[in-house]
Structure formats: structure tokens, C-alpha cells
Design brief:
Strand content: 15-25%
Largest sheet: 8 strands, mixed
CATH class of the largest domain: Alpha Beta
Oligomer: single chain
Number of strands: 15
Order of helices and strands: HEEHEEEHEEEEEEHEHEHHEEH
């Protein structure tokens, strides 16, 4: 598979979204609530509209799944998955740790992913068969000799239900919990790919929340899977683990299966 043209398009998509989002950062615009009570801003919609316009012009046969404007079925067997602002709460709060997520799925599996932080201008890009790049420079995850030494990150405990939270805390108890990091959404996965975080664990994610992350993490030497250790695909249930060191997979799965 030759992804070079798709990579170039992904960069243009991220550029277009960033241009649409940056003018709204730290502005005083009103925030609305969607049907599921999650917040959405003018910037979310502007970013996705900009990307959809570009996709319609350049790859009209490809499908599109976006957080804000739903799905458009394509005829090519390829689907672009868009999340203009992953981490809307951070965006609203003026914290530049949200990100624009862009993924390309082929037969339901992600083969290309971008995490773009348009304020800090940090862009992670991963693609099948290629090393992950941060602003054009190759990056790698770091080794983790023992789970007890691992730095664990998650967006926040309030995103777990009681059952999921018990499993997460069982994992947290076996990591270096004094360094556990809360907040960050997709930015945590960029940090993991760059060798600063060892494990990210989350539940309840939608396809647009995680699809772009898989090529970024795995192209840097890491691993992403569900809570059973199975590969992520379009039908996965949103229970997500990212590992900087794949050698810790068995330890993480064993820990998360505990429910004390």
C-alpha cells in the first residue's frame, strides 16, 4: 500500500482544521451541549467542516465519519475518521493539550493517523510500515522494565463507570501511582509515542476518539489494544489500552482483569 498521497492529504487536512480552530482558542464564545451532554464549540464545527470540504474535493469516493456531522458512506473501501477537537473541555479551559485527530481506515482498520495540536504546532503522524514522526522527526516509545515503574495516564476517573473504574484502579495500583497523570485526552498518546508516558488506559471511547492514535503509537514501537489484548478495529467497544513497551502487555492485562 502506497500511503504517500494519503499522508500529504492528511497534512493538508490538519492544516485546514488548525486554521479554522486557532482563531477561536481562548475566545469568549458560548459553548453548546450536544444530545449526550458533551460540550461543543464553534471551533469543533468549523474544524470538521474545513476537513470535509477538502475530502469531498480530493477523495469524493472515500467515506467519512466525523464527530460533529456523522457518517457519509463511500464506495472505495476507505474511510476517513475525523475529530476536530479531541479534548473540548481542555479547549474551552484554554489548555493547549487538545488535538485534531485524523485517521484513514481500510477495511475497518486504521492505517494512517494524525494527532495535531494546532496551538503548540505539534503534529504526530503514523502510517503503516513507516516510523512515527513528530514534526517530521522520528520518535520512539521508551522501554519499561516493570509495571511498577510505569507512568500511567488517563483523561479522568469520571469517564469510567463504577465497574470500569474498579478495573482501572486495579491497574493503577500496580503502576507508579504517585506519578499517575490525569487529563490530556489524545495528547497523552502523543506523549506515550514520544517516550514520556508508559501506559494509557481508557473506556467508553468512540471510533473518532481512538482511530488516529493506533498508527501513531504503533509506528513509534508501542502497542494499542482493547482490555482483552485484542487489536482495535471499527467494531471495538471503546475499552482502550496504549503501551509504550509491548513487553508489558501481559502484566497490564493481568492487572486490569483484577477487581478487588
Amino acid at each position: 500500500m502506497n500511503l504517500d498521497a494519503d499522508i500529504a492529504l492528511a497534512h493538508r487536512l490538519a492544516d485546514a482544521a488548525g486554521d479554522a480552530i486557532r482563531p477561536h482558542f481562548r475566545s469568549l464564545e458560548a459553548t453548546e451541549r450536544k444530545g449526550d451532554s458533551t460540550p461543543v464549540t464553534v471551533a469543533d464545527r468549523a474544524g470538521e467542516e474545513a476537513m470535509r470540504r477538502l475530502l469531498k474535493a480530493e477523495v469524493p469516493r472515500d467515506g467519512v465519519i466525523g464527530e460533529e456531522f456523522g457518517s457519509e458512506t463511500g464506495s472505495s473501501g476507505r474511510t476517513w475518521v475525523l475529530d476536530p477537537i479531541d479534548g473540548t473541555v481542555s479547549f474551552i479551559g484554554g489548555r493547549p493539550i487538545f488535538g485534531t485527530l485524523i485517521a484513514l481506515l481500510v477495511d475497518g482498520f486504521p492505517v494512517l493517523g494524525v494527532i495535531d495540536q494546532p496551538i503548540l504546532r505539534e503534529r504526530w503522524l503514523g502510517a503503516s510500515g513507516k516510523p512515527t514522526l513528530l514534526n517530521g522527526i522520528e520518535i520512539r516509545t521508551r522501554p519499561c522494565r516493570e509495571l511498577s515503574e510505569a507512568m500511567l495516564a488517563t483523561t479522568g476517573p469520571h469517564y469510567f463507570d463504577e465497574h470500569q473504574g474498579a478495573h482501572f484502579m486495579a491497574l493503577a495500583a500496580r503502576t507508579d501511582h504517585k506519578r499517575m497523570m490525569m487529563g490530556g485526552d489524545c495528547y497523552n498518546y502523543g506523549l506515550l509515542a514520544s517516550g514520556h508516558v508508559d501506559v494509557v488506559c481508557e473506556a467508553g471511547l468512540m471510533l473518532h476518539d481512538w482511530a488516529a492514535l493506533v498508527p501513531v503509537v504503533e509506528g513509534a514501537g508501542g502497542l494499542m489494544c482493547d482490555w482483552n489484548g485484542d487489536p482495535l478495529h471499527q467494531g471495538s467497544d471503546g475499552h482502550v489500552i496504549a503501551l509504550g513497551d509491548p513487553a508489558r502487555l501481559e502484566d497490564v492485562i493481568e492487572a486490569i482483569a483484577c477487581n478487588h
